[in-house]
């Protein structure tokens, strides 16, 4: 198959590109290298076609997105706190860029599997969260992902084949500190023998999903016969940020206590996936245990 991966030089995208290459697919990577790095693709650069293109550039996309079987759309701006400072740019990249992909999917009849986000749900009191839960994002980043879901609904009704994956908190080797989740930031502190910094009281809960489990879900969705679906991608398990910090300190063998700081703007209190739809629809099940992975890293 001939696939395109937008944001393919980024964290999730680069893992996905490597999986597709291992599976013997022809791969075109689209990335403007704003945050992505070609170094992430060093092991497969000779086996792929790389195009330095911004997803807001419809004319350039149109030249690439023809005679292909599908697009894995991972390109996005993703830092919640940053989105408060640059809401217009986040909208341009995450919404206008995504609509360009959907328009071409309708025009050229290829399938899209794209990265949505659990941030579309906003604050929820009842856990776990299923796909029918009300969507009410609390930050500009989450709003862009909800706007993408409105586009999903629009273009699906027009016949485009699209599956949206609501990622929960992804972890894995290779996240940059700037775009990283809390696990990467804790690891960085602990590796410097400094205590992890918790923003807020640490009672926030998160559902951490391993990056390779996420990319496998992408592939299963692309290979499936389903053509119109929004689905959670998480483990279904949750851990508080304080419990996470203590687990990581314990695994490291260091004697320290976490430091507490002011809560972050736009930070969701509780996030835990109901992943029954993913398991049932795609015979998918996350395989990597968080604590086991931490013992391999720390």
From TrEMBL:
The record, for Pfam families, names: Epimerase
User: Any coiled-coil ranges, and where?
Assistant: none
Its Gene Ontology molecular function terms? isomerase activity
Q: What domain of life is recorded for the organism? A: Archaea
What does the sequence similarity comment in the record state about its family?
Answer: Belongs to the NAD(P)-dependent epimerase/dehydratase family.
Please verify whether the record's keywords include Heme.
no
Task: Tell me which positions the record assigns to the signal sequence.
Answer: none
Q: Which SUPFAM superfamilies match?
A: NAD(P)-binding Rossmann-fold domains
Cite the NAD-dependent epimerase/dehydratase domain residue spans from the record: 4-234
Q: Which UniProt keywords apply?
A: Isomerase
What is this protein called in UniProt? 3-beta hydroxysteroid dehydrogenase/isomerase family protein
């Amino acid at each position: 198959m001939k696939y395109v991966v937008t944001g393919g030089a980024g964290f999730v995208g680069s893992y996905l590109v490597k999986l597709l290459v291992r599976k013997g697919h022809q791969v075109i990577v689209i990335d403007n290298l704003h945050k992505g790095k070609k170094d992430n693709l060093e092991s497969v650069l000779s086996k792929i076609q790389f195009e330095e293109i911004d997803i807001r550039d419809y004319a350039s996309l149109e030249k690439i997105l023809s005679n292909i079987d599908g697009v894995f759309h991972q390109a996005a701006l993703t830092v919640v706190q940053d989105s408060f400072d640059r809401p217009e740019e986040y909208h341009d990249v995450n919404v206008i860029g995504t609509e360009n992909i959907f328009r071409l999917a309708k025009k050229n009849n290829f399938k899209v599997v794209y990265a949505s986000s659990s941030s579309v749900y906003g604050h929820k009191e009842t856990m776990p969260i299923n796909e029918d839960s009300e969507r009410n994002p609390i930050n500009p980043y989450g709003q862009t992902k909800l706007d993408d879901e409105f586009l999903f609904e629009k273009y699906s009704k027009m016949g485009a084949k699209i599956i949206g994956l609501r990622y929960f908190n992804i972890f894995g080797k290779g996240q940059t500190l700037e775009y990283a989740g809390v696990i990467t930031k804790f690891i960085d502190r602990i590796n410097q023998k400094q205590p992890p910094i918790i923003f807020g009281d640490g009672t926030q809960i998160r559902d951490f999903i391993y990056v390779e489990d996420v990319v496998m879900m992408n592939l299963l969705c692309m290979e499936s016969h389903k053509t119109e679906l929004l689905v959670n991608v998480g483990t279904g398990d949750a851990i508080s940020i304080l419990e996470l910090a203590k687990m990581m300190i314990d695994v490291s063998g260091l004697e320290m206590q976490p430091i507490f700081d002011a809560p972050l703007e736009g930070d969701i209190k509780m996030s835990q996936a109901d992943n029954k739809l993913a398991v049932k629809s795609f015979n998918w099940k996350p395989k990597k245990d968080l604590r086991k992975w931490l013992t391999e890293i720390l």
